[in-house]
Structure formats: C-alpha cells, structure tokens
Amino acid sequence: MSFRFEDLADKTVVLTGAAWGIGRGLTPGLLEQGLRLVLIDRDTDQLAENAAALDDGRITWLHGDLADPGDRARLAAEIGDVAPDLWGIIHNAAIDPRRPLEKTDTDFFRDVIATNVEPAVDLTRQLLPGLRAGDGGRIILIGSITFEIGTALLSAYVASKGAIVGLTRSLAHELGPDG
C-alpha cells in the first residue's frame, strides 16, 4: 500500500516533459496522490499514449515545444483555460545532448538553455497570478546531480541545471512569503 497525502486530492499540477523519462515516471505517482494533471510535451504521440494508458478523467495533455517562446505563451494561456485552479508546476522538461566543448557553439548552448531554463522562467511568470490566487501554489524545478559533479560532454546541460538551482533558490526567497 502506498502512502497518500490527502491534502493533494483534486489539486491541479502542470508537469512539463511528461512523455519520457522522469516525467513519465512521475505521472502514476502523482495520480495516486489524487492530483489532476496537465501534462506537457513536444512528443504528441508518446504523450497521448501515456495519458491514454493512465487517464481516469484527471489528465489534460497539451502539445508544445517549450523551447519556443510562442509555444510557451500559448501553453500558458491554454493552462489558464483548462486549469483556472492551478495549484502547482513541476518543471521537468529538459534535453541533454552530448557534445565536446570544441564542437559546442553558441547556438547549441542556447538551444539547451531555451529548453531547460527559459520555460521554467516564462511559465512560472505567466502562471504566477493563478498560483497566487489559490491556497499557496507549489513550484518544483528538477535539477541534476551533474551540476554538483560535472560530466564530460554535457557542459551546456550541466550549466543549464546550475541555472535551475540558482533560479530555485532565488524564487524560494522571492515567492516563499506568498506561500
């Protein structure tokens, strides 16, 4: 028998990067807690397959490329429409392409930051009014141990996860007083 937090029942949480990896793995446990989920990913087919396998009427899935600022704005508007009672966001979307530093140009680095960091900033900012209107929203940003230890061929990814750690710390001080 799994442990259940009764105070999470019927709260709505957005989960980015929900089609694969950590996001896909988190979904069943979040549903077990009684949460309603808004799942976001750019892989429409896999996201739909996952949602269909688990959906009991508490999943909304939205397709979008979080590296695209236009998609982020559209997704924020859609989230506001489907989840006006939004309680939390789990920023999980990330890419981790491997490339040696001598082949890592600025565009490559920017692509990683655009996927791994910018959505956490933009979606949080755009959804903040709804989170504040509720009974104390929650914002979870997924980091990586690679920030602490470093990893060869992943300089852009590791730097992006360092940015996520810094963002998390700053938002805790800035938004924590709001609950």
Short note summarizing the structure:
This protein is α/β, with parallel strands linked by helices and 179 residues long. The chain has seven helices and five strands; from the N terminus they run βαβαβαβααβαα.
Structural class of the secondary structure composition?
alpha/beta
Count, helices: 7
Overall number of strands? 5
Return Rg in Å: 16 Å
What share of the residues does DSSP label as strand, in percent? Answer: 5-15%
Rough shape? globular
Order of helices and strands: EHEHEHEHHEHH
Task: Describe it.
The model has no long low-confidence stretch (mean pLDDT 93). α2 (44-54) links the parallel β2 (36-41) and β3 (59-63). The protein has helices at 21-32, 44-54, 69-82, 106-116, 118-133, 146-149, 155-175; strands at residues 12-16, 36-41, 59-63, 86-91, 138-141. The radius of gyration is 16 Å and the shape is globular. With 179 residues, the chain is α/β, with parallel strands linked by helices. Helices cover 50% and strands 15% of the residues. It has a 5-stranded parallel beta sheet, with helices on both faces.
Question: Which SSEs are present, and which pair or pack?
Answer:
Blueprint: E1 12-16, H1 21-32, E2 36-41, H2 44-54, E3 59-63, H3 69-82, E4 86-91, H4 106-116, H5 118-133, E5 138-141, H6 146-149, H7 155-175
Parallel strand pairs: 1-2, 1-4, 2-3, 4-5
